[in-house]
Design brief:
- This protein is of the alpha/beta class.
- It has two domains: 200 residues, no CATH class; 107 residues, Diaminopimelate Epimerase, Chain A, domain 1, CATH 3.10.310.
- Helices cover 38% and strands 15% of the residues.
- α2 runs parallel beside α4, α2 packs across α9 and α9 packs across α10.
- The longest helix is centred in the middle third of the chain and has 30 residues.
Length: 334
């Protein structure tokens, strides 16, 4: 096994934890535009996979995670070598991060041939796009866009884009990442039943489940939520209220938060009110740490059973909307 990128030998082991490759390779190309990520609105074109082929040498976060997703969906073996021409034309074989072709209909997911000015992307993004999951992943997986930058622009450009010192990128490396990537790179084939393969299946399934639950939660909040305008001392606190019902999401606070992001009203909302998972009442939180609200001020209220010392949220046994609005007013800093 090598400690450098198979296409970028100047990239060392520290960078492998998040993966990078910045060499634009000009091979045969299908679909290099930005809209390639929104390849197909559903996955009806995807046949049952028989095999996944990805590049040899050092492994990177994008190809590992792309393989994780496909393992979770299809349970087929992973082979780490260059693909043959016949494999590139076989829709029953997924080609990941190698091969010089992006053609979802043929299960080809490489990006290295994209022009240098192409927006940052990676093989994981292409797989998510083919499954119709890329838009939600970009909104609700905050780690995805940095992974795209790292893989297509390298650590220096990524650090500059993030506005952090170059060393900060390495400081965020995890020994968990390093071990998984090294073990994945150490074998030329991975099959069902192996410890690493089954762990990769867990990772892929958790990511697919998360994105499914995110979308379901947003739709449930969209159907049931109310928009409140809580007037106080000449100001107005806009809030999203999710009443308790038979279809309350498993994570109501997170679903409300993601609904706000999905609908583009982040700059308007100051508070969220959602069913408490540990009781019959509600949780009330300031959205994105709205500086006008401090829920620690509610400590001592008879129906407030918990007020976080930092002031970002409280839990109440109250269920009447008028009382919930009163608590929001009482939390406004004076």
């Amino acid at each position: 096994m090598t400690d450098s990128c198979w296409q970028c030998p100047d990239i060392g082991a520290a960078e492998l934890a998040v993966g990078t490759c910045s060499l634009p390779l000009i091979w045969r190309s299908v679909g290099t535009g930005v809209d390639a990520l929104a390849a197909v609105p559903d996955n009806s074109f995807m046949s049952e996979l028989q095999r996944i082929v990805t590049h040899p040498g050092g492994a990177h976060k994008d190809d590992l995670l792309a393989c994780c997703i496909l393992i979770a969906k299809y349970g087929c073996p992973v082979v780490r070598r260059d693909p043959t021409e016949d494999e590139l034309g076989d829709a029953s074989i997924a080609i990941i991060d190698v091969g010089g072709s992006h053609d979802p209909a043929l299960q080809n997911f490489d990006h290295h041939h994209f022009p240098r000015e192409h927006p940052p992307t990676c093989s994981l993004s292409l797989v998510l796009g083919a499954l119709g999951l890329y838009e939600d992943a970009m909104k609700f997986c905050d780690w995805l866009e940095p992974a795209e930058w790292f893989d297509s622009r390298g650590p220096n450009k990524t650090a500059e884009w993030l506005g952090v010192p170059r060393r900060a990128v390495a400081q965020l490396n995890s020994p968990i990442d390093m071990t998984l990537l090294r073990r994945f790179a150490a074998q030329s084939e991975h099959v069902a039943g192996e410890t690493l393969y089954e762990y990769m299946r867990f990772v892929g399934q958790d990511l697919l489940d998360y994105l499914r639950d995110v979308r379901e939660g947003i739709e449930l909040v969209s159907k049931a939520s109310e928009r409140w305008s809580v007037a106080v001392d000449g100001d107005v606190i806009e809030a999203v209220f999710l009443p308790r019902n038979d279809e309350t999401p498993d994570e109501p606070s997170g679903s409300v938060f993601r609904f706000i992001r999905a609908t583009g009203i982040e700059d308007q909302i100051g508070a969220t009110v959602y069913p408490d998972r540990r009781g019959e009442g509600y949780g009330i939180s300031r959205y994105e740490d709205d500086p006008r609200l401090d829920f620690s001020q509610l400590d001592g209220e008879p129906d407030v059973r918990f007020a976080h010392k930092s002031g970002f949220m409280c839990k109440t046994t109250a269920t009447d909307p008028s009382r919930l609005k009163e608590l929001i007013r009482a939390a406004v800093k004076r």
